[in-house]
Design brief:
The chain is mostly helical and 71 residues long. The protein has a domain of 40 residues. It is built from one helix and no strands. The longest helix is centred in the middle third of the chain and has 36 residues. The protein is elongated, with a radius of gyration of 23 Å.
């Protein structure tokens, strides 16, 4: 399920109407929780994404003579 978080009309999850103050308090609480989560697990998260980013890189094969590449 893909949810466009910027367009409430496309969300498949029914959310209640909230007052401005409640929305800001919930928003701040979610960011506070995310900060705590990243403080605890941030190194693991970065290692995971770093490892994933190398999977898509193409590395040329070694030169046939085992020496240095010509350029």
């Amino acid at each position: 399920m893909t949810i466009n978080r910027y367009n409430q009309d496309s969300a498949h999850i029914a959310l209640p109407q909230l007052g401005d103050d409640a929305v800001v308090q919930i928003h701040d609480f979610i960011y506070f929780c995310l900060d705590l989560f990243e403080a605890r697990y941030g190194d693991q998260i970065h290692r995971y994404y770093q490892a994933c980013s190398h999977d898509d890189l193409w590395e040329p094969p070694d030169p046939p003579d085992g020496g240095e590449p010509p350029f």
